[in-house]
Write a structure and sequence with these properties.
There is one protein chain. By secondary structure, the chain is an alpha/beta fold. The chain is 42% helix and 18% strand. It has 26 helices and 19 strands. α7 (177-191) packs across α8 (208-216) and α22 (572-582) crosses α23.
């Protein structure tokens, strides 16, 4: 083991036994710079609280101690592993093996993987074995790898070359991409002190390596400004270069705003690792980038700088946490069978588990290591598989909610209690006065993921229908879903006859969009409930659009109004008013209420084809934006807005 560490490899030590015993085995003085995750950390180490783990992004340590006596937190471990330098040691403080395996199937799988790994050092309480300590810890060199040098030059070309040619830098953890960003920015400032560089990230500590480089190079922090994404976008400013670090942690909707506003952008992101990372981000973001520029440059850094190639701990942790899982290789989808997968079967088939996780990572860019933990350990979660000759071509995850007593349901509705789980029903109880829903049984469809080679073949619909069929057999009352509002997802759930019940008041931090909650009644007792919730949602929409939903994209607004039973009939009095407006006899202000009613009726009946005129109508009449605001967003004058509205409503009347 010392030989491994002297070659800048990292080592993992597992201490099985009482927590007090395990801590006694550690010589704190010999641990070097130590990050300690847990409640029993000595005063002399750098304690990492559970809610501050992401603040360690970009930092480094010589040893990492992780207490696992309350279970292992995959997201936190994945984040912290990237801070451990080559030559360092990971100490996992574990209960005895039986207690550890008793946490659930996830821990049973880990125990099996631990047993198979001959590179790990096992120390069990009662063993007479000395504990290895960090040695020859690798300090990050100021000498850049060739990959980093190439990256520095690519970043500088973004800042000095043609505009609208963004750069995307991807790498696994520990490849030195943030250091490369710092070196490139330092070069740019030294060449031209007037350049204004903005460094954007979700937290300041994650870009410490970047500012360490600037400090070493003599570049003052006042020259380069760090900002949170929302803070930067809230200000009227532009930069010579805008660098977004760990872009996978930033909502795609927010990244799109940067693409709309900035001319010179560099995006950097981890491919395998902690929360929000993964190939799913790269795939989805690539599609978004393509709609803004056909001159996108991509660079991937492969050579590690914090530890040596073929690091045993990196190889092991990738397997533990499935950080590098990939979906099955599929050319085409021929015949599909759908099944609800038993968790024990999933545990006993590592290749199947890897294919499922790989599919989820590719399809959902916010997939986390903890999702695997929940998939195996949460008894309320079910996995549904669509397979073609054994290969996983699509999957869905459902979670059961409800079945709560009337007394507890009332306490939840009043805000006195907030039990774990029941996300959708608790939200409807508190915000939509649907306390009785908590007494029902609901299956919430959390995710549906389809293999890239098999999309647009109806697999998602087949999964939804299979879930509905089984729910009926299991006497489930409701199906539900909650997701970041977007036109494509909304159209899919509407096609499955789900009805909108509530849209969130606040933008979700991870998705950058409001959550839309939809329901499908199964039992007869819930049909009227869903209709009432949907009717209330539709009645509330006009006010909400002029208030907390005023920034929604018009295409989303258009889709939100659709109601299966709606009529597009126009009241005769409203029609007379609109004819007068289209013939230039009436001003907008005098007919605006009638225009709003007609527009809502048309949108409720069927989606109206997207156009600038429709965008203007939605912004002016539903979101109550001023003509100055519409001029700024659409680039057309007040008189042009009025003319577009005349044409739009003339056509709506003619087609009624």
């Amino acid at each position: 083991m010392p030989q491994l560490m002297q070659h800048s490899h990292r080592q993992a030590v597992l201490l099985w036994g009482d927590l007090a015993w395990a801590i006694d085995q550690l010589d704190v003085k010999s641990l070097g710079h130590c990050f300690w995750y847990g409640e029993q950390a000595p005063l002399t180490v750098d304690t990492v609280a559970a809610n501050h783990v992401t603040q360690k992004l970009g930092q480094q340590c010589d040893s990492l101690v992780v207490e696992c006596h309350q279970g292992l937190k995959p997201d936190h471990l994945a984040t912290l592993l990237g801070t451990l330098r080559g030559g360092g040691v990971l100490y996992l403080l574990l209960p005895d093996r039986q207690n550890f395996k008793g946490f659930g199937l996830y821990e049973q799988r880990l125990a099996t993987l631990f047993d198979r790994d001959k590179q790990l050092i096992y120390i069990t309480q009662g063993d007479d074995q000395s504990l290895p300590t960090p040695l020859a810890v690798k300090k990050e060199s100021f000498e850049l790898t060739q990959g980093q040098k190439d990256t520095v030059e690519a970043i500088k070309r973004v800042a000095t070359g043609h505009a609208k040619r963004p750069l995307v830098i991807t790498a696994d953890r520990g490849r030195g991409k943030t250091t490369a960003l710092g070196e490139a920015i330092a070069d740019l400032i030294e060449a031209d002190e007037k350049k204004v560089v903005a460094v954007i990230s979700m937290n300041r500590r994650s870009v410490d390596p970047l500012f360490d480089v600037l400090k070493r190079r003599g570049v003052g922090e006042g020259t380069v400004h760090w900002m949170h994404p929302d803070e930067y976008l809230s200000q009227e400013r532009s930069s010579s270069l805008c660098v977004i670090d760990e872009a996978a942690m930033v909502p795609l909707a927010t990244l799109e705003k940067f693409l709309q506003r900035e001319n010179r952008l560099v995006f950097s992101s981890t491919v395998h690792g902690y929360e929000g990372s993964g190939r799913g981000f790269v795939t989805r973001f690539a599609k978004l980038l393509g709609s803004y520029s056909n001159q996108v440059k991509q660079i991937q850094l492969d050579h590690p700088v914090r530890w040596a190639n073929d690091d045993p701990l990196e190889i092991a942790s990738n397997q533990w946490l499935m950080l590098n899982a990939k979906p099955d290789e599929i050319d085409k989808c021929v015949g599909v069978t759908i099944e609800c997968c038993d968790k024990t079967s999933l545990l006993n088939d590592e290749s199947l588990l890897r294919a499922v996780v790989g599919l989820l990572v590719d399809a959902h860019y916010q997939t986390r290591p903890s999702d695997l933990h929940a998939l195996l350990n949460d008894p309320m979660q079910q996995l549904w598989l669509a397979r073609d000759n054994g290969r996983v071509v699509a999957c869905a995850i459902t979670i059961e909610e409800g079945g709560i007593s009337k007394e507890l349901a009332e306490q939840i509705a009043r805000g006195y209690r907030r039990p774990k789980g029941h996300l959708l029903l608790q939200s409807l109880a508190q915000h939509s006065a649907y306390a009785e829903g908590l007494e029902k049984k609901l299956w919430r469809i959390m995710r549906i993921a389809t293999h890239e080679q098999c999309r647009r073949q109806g697999l998602a619909s087949q999964l939804a229908q299979a879930i509905l069929k089984e729910a009926k057999q299991q006497s489930i009352d409701l199906l539900g879903t909650s997701y970041a509002t977007d036109v494509t997802s909304l159209a899919f759930w509407q096609s499955q006859h789900f009805k909108s019940a509530r849209i969130g008041h606040r933008v979700d931090a991870s998705s950058g969009a409001q959550s839309l909650q939809m329901l499908l009644a199964i039992s007869k007792s819930c049909i009227a409930d869903v209709e009432q919730l949907h009717a209330q949602y539709v009645k509330d929409l006009p006010y909400r659009l002029s208030d907390d939903l005023s920034a929604l994209e018009p295409a989303v607004v258009s889709a939100l109004f659709f109601t299966e039973s709606a009529s597009d009939a126009i009241d005769q009095a409203d029609e007379k008013l609109l004819v007068g407006f289209s013939e230039h006899r009436r001003e907008l202000q005098s007919v605006a209420p009638a225009m709003q009613r007609v527009l809502i009726a048309k949108l409720s009946h069927a989606a109206t084809e997207e156009s600038t005129a429709l965008s203007v109508a939605i912004k002016r009449l539903l979101q109550r934006q001023t003509h100055q605001q519409v001029t700024q967003s659409e680039g057309i004058s007040r008189s042009e807005q009025i003319e577009l509205l005349r044409q739009l409503f003339s056509g709506l009347i003619a087609n009624s």
